[in-house]
């Protein structure tokens, strides 16, 4: 039924059989396909559109000659992306093992757990694919390595992005260790990004084909050596095709599941309500800086607001936006939409804790020299031109690492400290890495 998705015109470049030995040489940076015996020829391979789309999608790194199929542990979440990724890996010859990753215990908060339904879906997929499924409990690790920092950032008036650090600390660190203990050669996930493997064993990270679903932003703080142990089967596919493919496999329920948005452990709850379980969140004042500091109404806690956010103020007409937050005094300063751009615009920001996926570009190793690049300062925001340069300091902060300055030729707006900047090559979709926004220069507020 699914044979049309298996064969590939690149087969002869991907796999070579060693004489009469049933051993395989996996060639670097080619597309993986189903393994065929040497007496089968590539002359009979079809070139229909479905094969082109799904048969040539998985690139993989070089491996030593092995007398077995490469073993891959895939993060199986019960969602459509990981389901299709697992199916493609299985159909294209890999020895696949599923791993359901648990990083948050909803029962402790609500008495019920939506993650149990996801695990049940993952079990259904694993049973249908006839692959083993393991349950990896990283709840304590997530709490200590991601969530504690998330709370500290909010207490310090910083807007964090825990999903970025979940990737770095859990999926591309602990999960890799877990997979290697199971004997896996690589891990795989359903991320919409691309990896290109190099002869020296390193890897380059690129944006996915589907720019609307591209998740490179969430991977830019991940170490290059960890990405080199990973596969992204969906990097050259679009979401609509993934859904249609899942439907063709009979996974109607999974294909119809809504993609998760926002911070995973918060779900649909208002942020103040969630944060109040872990820290004091007190009502405070919305103050309009355009009306001689008129108090508009109460908010639910300044700690839950970030610069550039829309302020839902029911006592006034028109849209208002947050332009500043005084967390110590619990005050949120706002202004009407027609004035917001003036106070939210910036052409300069600084970055700390920068993660270079590969080596630092030689240009940046010299002082006062700028590298022309592009960047994305919010997920799904446009990738915009910028310049980056290294800033020297007489008293460098060991915890923050080297400091870099980003300059935009055109002003940008609504950029908040604590968020991530993902840096790209000026001319291509190659990702250099990412850093945490430390400071943002904006027009001075009348407060």
UniProtKB/TrEMBL annotation:
GO cellular component: mitochondrion
Reactions performed catalytically: 5-taurinomethyluridine(34) in tRNA + S-sulfanyl-L-cysteinyl-[protein] + AH2 + ATP = 5-taurinomethyl-2-thiouridine(34) in tRNA + L-cysteinyl-[protein] + A + AMP + diphosphate + H(+)
Family matches, as Gene3D superfamilies: Adenine nucleotide alpha hydrolases-like domains, HUPs, Translation factors
Keyword NAD attributed: no
InterPro entries: MnmA-like, MnmA-like_C, MnmA-like_central, MnmA-like_central_sf, Rossmann-like_a/b/a_fold
Keywords: ATP-binding, Disulfide bond, Methyltransferase, Nucleotide-binding, RNA-binding, Transferase, tRNA processing, tRNA-binding
Location of the tRNA-specific 2-thiouridylase MnmA-like C-terminal domain: 347-437
Transmembrane segments: none
GO molecular function: ATP binding; methyltransferase activity; tRNA binding; tRNA-5-taurinomethyluridine 2-sulfurtransferase
Domain tRNA-specific 2-thiouridylase MnmA-like central positions: 273-335
Annotated compartments: Mitochondrion
Taxonomic superkingdom: Eukaryota
Any Pfam family: tRNA_Me_trans
The EC number(s) this enzyme carries: 2.8.1.14
Predominant cellular place of this UniProt entry's protein: mitochondrion
GO BP term (any one): tRNA wobble position uridine thiolation
Family: Belongs to the MnmA/TRMU family.
Function recorded in the entry: Catalyzes the 2-thiolation of uridine at the wobble position (U34) of mitochondrial tRNA(Lys), tRNA(Glu) and tRNA(Gln). Required for the formation of 5-taurinomethyl-2-thiouridine (tm5s2U) of mitochondrial tRNA(Lys), tRNA(Glu), and tRNA(Gln) at the wobble position. ATP is required to activate the C2 atom of the wobble base.
Classification via HAMAP family: tRNA_thiouridyl_MnmA
Protein name: tRNA-5-taurinomethyluridine 2-sulfurtransferase
Organism: Tieghemostelium lacteum (Slime mold)
């Amino acid at each position: 039924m699914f044979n049309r998705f298996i064969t590939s015109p690149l087969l002869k470049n991907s796999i070579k059989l060693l004489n009469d030995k049933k051993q395989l040489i996996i060639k670097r940076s080619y597309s993986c396909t189903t393994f065929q015996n040497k007496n089968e020829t590539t002359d009979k391979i079809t070139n229909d559109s479905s094969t082109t789309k799904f048969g040539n999608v998985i690139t993989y790194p070089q491996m030593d000659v092995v007398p077995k199929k490469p073993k891959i542990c895939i993060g199986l979440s019960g969602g459509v992306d990981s389901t299709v990724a697992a199916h493609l890996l299985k159909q294209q010859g890999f020895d696949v093992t599923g791993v359901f990753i648990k990083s948050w215990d909803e029962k402790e908060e609500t008495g019920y757990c939506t993650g149990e339904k996801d695990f049940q879906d993952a079990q259904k997929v694993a049973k249908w694919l006839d692959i083993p499924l393991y349950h990896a409990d990283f709840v304590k690790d997530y709490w200590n390595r991601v969530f504690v920092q998330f709370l500290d950032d909010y207490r310090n008036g910083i807007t964090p992005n825990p999903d970025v650090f979940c990737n770095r600390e859990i999926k591309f660190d602990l999960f890799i260790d877990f997979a290697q203990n199971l004997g896996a050669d690589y891990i795989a996930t359903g991320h919409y990004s691309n990896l290109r493997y190099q002869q020296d064993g390193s890897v380059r990270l690129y944006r996915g084909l589907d720019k609307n679903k591209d998740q490179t932003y969430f991977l830019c703080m991940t170490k290059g050596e960890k990405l080199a142990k990973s596969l992204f089967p969906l990097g050259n596919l679009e979401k609509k095709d993934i859904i249609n493919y899942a439907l063709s496999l009979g996974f109607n329920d999974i294909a119809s599941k809504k993609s998760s948005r926002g911070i995973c452990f918060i779900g649909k709850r208002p942020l103040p309500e969630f944060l109040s379980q872990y820290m004091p969140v007190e009502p405070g004042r919305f103050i309009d800086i355009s009306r001689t500091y008129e108090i508009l109404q109460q908010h639910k806690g300044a700690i839950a607001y970030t610069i550039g956010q829309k302020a839902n103020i029911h006592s006034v007409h028109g849209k208002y936006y947050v332009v500043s937050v005084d967390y110590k005094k619990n005050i949120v300063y706002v202004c009407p939409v027609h004035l917001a751009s003036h106070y939210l615009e910036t052409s300069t920001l600084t970055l700390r804790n920068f993660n270079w996926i590969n080596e630092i570009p030689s240009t940046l190793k010299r002082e006062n020299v700028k590298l022309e690049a592009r960047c994305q300062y919010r997920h799904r925001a446009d990738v915009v031109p910028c310049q980056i340069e290294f800033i020297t300091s007489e008293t460098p902060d060991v915890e923050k690492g080297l400091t870099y300055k980003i300059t935009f030729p055109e002003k940008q707006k609504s950029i908040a400290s604590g968020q991530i900047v993902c840096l790209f090559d000026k001319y291509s979709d190659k990702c250099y890495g990412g850093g945490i926004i430390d400071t943002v220069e904006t027009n001075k507020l009348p407060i």
